[in-house]
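User: Predict the structure for this protein chain, please.
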Amino acid sequence: MSRIKFLLFLLALAAQVPLASATVTYAVGTCKPALHSFTTIQGALDASPPPNVVEVCPGTYNEQVVIGIPVALEGISYGNSAEAMIAPPANGTAVAKAANDFGQVVAAQVLVSNVAGEVNLTNLTVQGQSGFPSDGIRYVGVFYRLVKYAHPQDVGK
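Assistant: Here is the predicted structure, written as structure tokens:
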């Protein structure tokens, strides 16, 4: 009888241990052929299932990136190249639906918005748009926005 109780105890203990979820890793570019690859960073971030890790191959990615999930976005080395750069798109950096703590509207090259969890950016160069437009918009490279700091005009958007 004690052996049955011991087995039931082990079974109950195993039922309480959560199973580790699998890490979903995508690549941007062509340097990691073993991974599911995308041509844009935003494409990888928007994929289903959502990634835990996005490895960005060396190169220049002319896009504005919006991150809305917990993720590690990592620039990686390949061959003689090591720089993964996020640069403004050809039509310029659009105004993000965000404001800083001073109520100034920002145009972010990389916008991390309302993420419940960690977002890590490593080994990436963010080349923001230069200049200061007359309408008071602030250009920023990376902007982390939390719900509690949202500009009143953006609530519900």
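The mean pLDDT is 80.
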